Amino acid sequence: MEENMVLSVHTGDRLQEQINNAIHMLKDDIFYLDETRDDFERLEKTAEEAFKALRQTEKSMIAIQNIAMNVKILGFNASIEANRVKENGKGFSVIASEVRNLAETTNASVVKISEAVMKLDDFRDNLSSGIEEITKRYGYLYDDMKKVIDTLKTAKKDIPEQE
Question: Is 137 domain-assigned?
């Protein structure tokens, strides 16, 4: 009987030690989860700032596109004027043609940049939904870990103190 009592005391002490270790490990995990959450919040803010800059780039591209359109119109008008003066306007006609080509090249570049910006928008959407999903899972995990700690604390209290 005394041997069973010693074994019971030893088992109770070991169980309390295991519970204490589990609580400590879970508290460490919660700390790391908090750090991870903070990292994700910083990442989300950085992504938002990057996409604000992207919006500004889009505005600049629209301005460049408008300039290219005006340059193209000027080139076209210069061509008309060069044709009106015939022989005296041949050199001017070449310049007008080059101006129109420059405008078209600029416009084509703006279109390519716009396509890249649209892809970046898709990446942003995917990044945002990914961060949102991870944050949601983090919340579930965090809540579950808190519940496990509470359960372990309750179980520890239920273990009779051994002398």
Answer: yes
